[in-house]
Amino acid sequence: MNEVILSPSLLAADFARAGEALALVREAGAPWIHLDVMDGHFVRAVTFGGQMVAALRRCSDLFLDVHIMADRNGALAEDLMQAGADSITFHIESEKDPAALLQRIRAGGCRAGLALKPATPVEQVYPYLPLCDMVLVMTVEPGAGGQPLIPETLEKVRALRNRAPELDIQVDGGINERTAAAAREAGANVLVAGSAVFGSSDPAGAIARLRGGAPCA
Ligand code: DX5
Ligand code: ZN
User: b or e along 45-73 (b: 16 or more beta carbons within 10 Å of the residue's beta carbon)?
Assistant: First the structure.
């Protein structure tokens, strides 16, 4: 079984205090930070790009897990590699040549990931699995934090885990202490949590509980 990794999502933190958020995550023992890059087209919201990621790289040695939600992935991926991202995941729905981009990301020294929206059949990623370090199964519609997990998406996790026992499988959206257990049981090993961490009155405690997989108190 793959190591279980918690990747708290900065999206739910105070962007004006991003450096402090990363320090808190580091101190609480989560190894990754999830950084959502949104372009205002693929999803309505706009967040940040390479410049912000470079600034975060300078202030933290956390593993920078970047999730691109954009129509044009190539140039953004180049910027993010330059910025010091450790992993770059983009959406299969918005990329004409996923194989070429996965190869470019790996050639740049980054881990490469492919994401799918809730309505996208999991079979679509199968041809690209040899080029993927991780597959992100979105458990909500991409674009905003704080939505409830769509239970049917966990069936895709299950199918993918059966097909690829060694793959890192990430789930993102609606992950909390209760749904984390279901996601892990389905076969996910990389858990993104935004509001469950930064929306909590005790983010460090939430990280510890999500990492331990302890049941909800
Ligand atoms: C949503 C983003 C998520 C978001 C998850 O499109 O990809 O990373 O931060 O937020 P929660 O954990 O609040 O559902
Ligand atoms: Zn995300």
Answer: eebbbbebbbebbeebebbbbbbbbbeeb
